[in-house]
Amino acid sequence: MPSNQCPLGALPARFRRTRVLIVGCGDVGQRVAARLPAGVRVLALTSSAERVAALRSQGLVPLRGNLDDAASLRRLAGLADRVLHLAPPPGAGGRDARTRALGQALLRRTRPRALVYGSTSGVYGDCGGDWVAETRRPAPRTERALRRLDAEAAVRFLGRAGGVRASVLRIPGIYAPDRAGGTPRERLAKGTPVLRAEDDVYTNHIHADDLARACIAALWRGQAQRVVNASDDTALKMGDYFDLAADLYGMARPPRVAAEEARGQLSLMVLSFMSESRRLLNQRLKRELRLALHHPTAETGLR
Q1: Known SUPFAM superfamilies for this protein (predicted)?
Q2: Which CA distances in Å does 3 have to 106, 179, 293?
């Protein structure tokens, strides 16, 4: 797909002057910007002066602002027709003041037509390996997931209070060969263990390019106050995923250990992922956002 081709096809003439604001314009945000048609003006919020030139070189309009400084966000009011919010929450606590500050800024003047927030599938907590639809009640088990759920609530409030078509993408593990840390190679090279089959958990994935296309689809097609699981079709346990990657890369499969043994070898972050098991259903992604995945399984994406 050419870099300037939108997965929604050619946009109608009335959309060609659309202004899209990307908040949190990292890897996925830049993939989104590259896939929007040339007629769409893309604004990117950044708190880093060092990033301004790089964003401008990609054809984006950089805007200086810091989500931790509400006053610096005032200039965002009325600037964009559609907003994509991919910025992470603060690093501690159970609330996301950053998303609330962004929401207040967007409510000051003419509100955007659409707001899409990139959340995490971690808000579901441990589901015991069940298939999980968006109607399942969230049960976050970590502060990180609690912050994301708080951000979702702020986004929904903005939708109700401001008449904005607000939607949420719940995102699992993101991978891509050209994404920093986007493949299992580094972990396989270190020989980091995975759980033995009887202790293993289901994990979920989305290729970064497909996630970018899902973000664009949600900006134009997302339903108001709607949650969508942005996941591919893969139904693999974590150990099987790393075995698959090892076989594709011609590397040694990781060692398998019992859950008790893993607690003494792995970081708390890795252990938190190993303590939750779920399989995401993605019918809304396909039916409502009408997204045809380019990488429907981890095997095709890793190849």
Answers
A1: NAD(P)-binding Rossmann-fold domains (SSF51735)
A2: 29, 16, 17
pLDDT tens for each residue of 161-181: 889 999 999 999 999 988 888
Query: Which residues of the chain fall below pLDDT 70?
Result: 1-16
Alpha carbons 269 and 125: distance in angstroms, whole number: 14
CA separation for the pair 98, 118 (Å, rounded): 14
Tokens of 202: 């289901």
For 183-231, write each residue's pLDDT tens digit. Answer: 899 889 999 999 999 999 999 999 999 999 999 999 999 999 999 999 9
Packed helices 143-162 and 97-106: angle between N→C axes, nearest 10 degrees:
10
Q: What is the largest CA-CA distance in the chain?
A: 60
Cβ contacts of 215 within 8 Å, gap of 6 or more: 28, 32, 84, 86, 116, 118, 169
Q: What is the DSSP letter of 71?
A: G
Q: Are 28 and 212 in contact (CB under 8 A)?
A: yes
Using CA atoms, how far residue 156 sits from 3, 119, 164, 232, in Å, is 32, 12, 9, 25
User: Where do the structural domains in the chain lie, given as residue ranges?
Assistant: 13-175+205-232+280-298, 185-201+235-274
Asked: is 13-175+205-232+280-298 a CATH 2.60.40.10 domain? The reply is: no
Residue located via tokens 């990609």: 58
The amino acid present at 239, given as its one-letter code, is G
Alpha helix segments (H runs only) across the chain: 27-35, 52-57, 97-106, 143-162, 185-190, 208-221, 238-249, 259-263, 268-274, 283-287, 298-302
Tokens of 107: 């409510």
